[in-house]
Structure formats: C-alpha cells, structure tokens
Amino acid sequence: MADVIIVGGGLIGLLTARTLSASGAKIVLVERGQLGQESSWAGGGILSPLYPWKYPAAVNELATWSQAHYRQLVEELKQATGIDAEWTQSGLLVLDGDQCEAALAWAPTYAANVQVVNASVIQSLEPALPAKYPSGLWMSKVAQIRNPVLIQALREDLRLRGVRVAENTEVTHLLSKKGRVQGVQTEYGEVVADQVIVACGAWSATLLKELGREVPVMPVRGQMILFRMKPGQLQHIVLWQGHYVIPRRDGRVLVGSTMEDVGFDKKVTDEARDGLARIAYEMVPALANVPMERHWAGLRPGSPTGVPFIGAYPNIDGLFVNAGHFRNGVVMAPASAQLLADIVQNRPTMMEASPFALDNCSTAA
Which domain-ending residue is among 302, 319, 347? Predict the structure, then answer.
C-alpha cells in the first residue's frame, strides 16, 4: 500500500513526488499519458512570469521562492542522473516601454533587478533586434530551463528514488468513504492510499467535479513555433506585446504563444502558426532566414487569477490539490511542490498557504 497517490505526471506532479519521497513517503504516481508530455513539455521554460508586476502577490511569492532554488535543483538532478536541464541565466529584455513605471514600482518588493534601458542599450544587449524600440526593461537575473529535458531528469530521479510510476493509466474516479479518501479507481483497477494528490493540470477539475465542488481550472490552448538559428545569434529572452522569443544553447529559438479558449482541443492551426511567425520576424528579422522546425500546442491549466490551488480539498480528509498554475507552472513548480508537501505532512509551511486554499474558489456544484 502506498502512502500517497499523485494523479498527474506533469512537472507539478513530478516535483511533488520528489519532494515527498525525500521524507521517506512511499509514492505512486499515476499519469493518463506519458510523463510531462502536456503543458510541462509544451511551455517555454522561462523562469519568471511574463510581466510579473501584473500578477497577484501569491504568484510572485511562489515564483520568487522557486527562482532562488532552481539552479540547485537542476544541479542536484544533474549529479543524480547525468541529465542537464540547462539552467541558463539568459536575462529578459522587455521591449514594452509603457511597462517601465509599473515594473519599477513592483521591483523593490521582490528585490528584483530591473533596469530601464534606452534604444542604444537595447541594441548593445541584443544586436539581432531591429533599431526601432525606444525604451524597455532589462532583467538580467531571469533564467530559463529546457523543460523537456527537466522532465527527463525528473523521470530518472524518481526511478532512482524508488517512486512507482504508472503511465498510460487514467484515473477514472477518486475513492472516498465517510469523508475520508481511500485511493483512486483507474481503468485497470483500484489503487489504495491514505492520501491522494490531484495534480493533473487542465484535467483536474473534471476529476474533482464528481465530489460536489467546482474547482475553476480550465484548459487554455497555447501554440508555439520553433526555429533553428546558430548558437549565439540571439542571446537573451525577449518579450514584446505579450509574445516572447527564447534562445536555447544549441541555437534553437522558441516563439510563443497564443491564448485560446477551445476546451480540450490540442490541434494546431495554420492561422496561429502564421501569426506567430509574423511576430517572430518583426521581433527578430533574422528568423525569416532560418528554418522553422516545429509547431505544437499545449493546454495550460487556467485559473481565474493565475493563482494556483494548493492545499487540502474541503470535507474529504487526505485529499489534496496542486493545480491551476496557468501560464507559470514551470517557474512556480518547485515552490508549489514544497508548499503542498509541507501541508500534506502537517509541517510549518515555507510561506503563507492561505492564498492558495481551495476555500478561495467557487463552492457551486
């Protein structure tokens, strides 16, 4: 019998499993598909919210904690598994000059390094950009990781830790009796445990709905495209009008992303591909001269304010939720995993947990 069942094998579920297993808990992780192949794989891996000053304090608290711990996490995984998730302090160059006032007001609260830059500094920082941006913001401390490789490293790390993983296994029901969780029903049979964590991203609300409480986590499709440049042609993450370009170490450049309310439809569209390409060529003209390698879509687990739900599910002892991270699942993941592990194991939490409680969401059934 397991101590904890985790439903969902994305980055949130994987890191939650790792954090709990470090305390000796016996973990079973159940994933409906392949580990990390939904939004965790599809995202860009920027270790900062886009325009963090636009987000609630709760999002910034999780992001700031994770930013302080990510480099060590990646190094620990590399030492344990030999897989390098490529933590890279690329810096973030924001080309929206109208964001300067808000960013400077936000920065002192989180000890963020934010510098207003003019056109000449923008050009010196990133010569690949056209000389048309009069002002912007430079956030030199912002890093990125290669999220698909991070998933690979976590998969191997959990194997070494003895965490049981069941892929291609859909959980169809949560089992409870007299206000106490009993485990889960999968398509292959029951799995029993005293504690269950729902961390299945955009699918979390569907699984929890049968228990009589709506959790407002909904799928939001995001499409991205990938180019292949030479290493070093673009050196920094660049953000403009809600879109971004991310240079990887090997020269690949990600461009994203769309925000589409289309339910659980993950199809890619020509319209989105062409629109993202036009934006990419406007931001970095050299991208028009290199191959577009790939176009894909993922489903973000949207939530009303971008604040995830992390904590106990009301009225059912032993049931917990870690979902609703929307666009910032990668940057908030380590903190979200640690916070929930503290709650599950009834320890003092490393930050105030009340902003993430499910009591803050709708009670309609």
Answer: 302
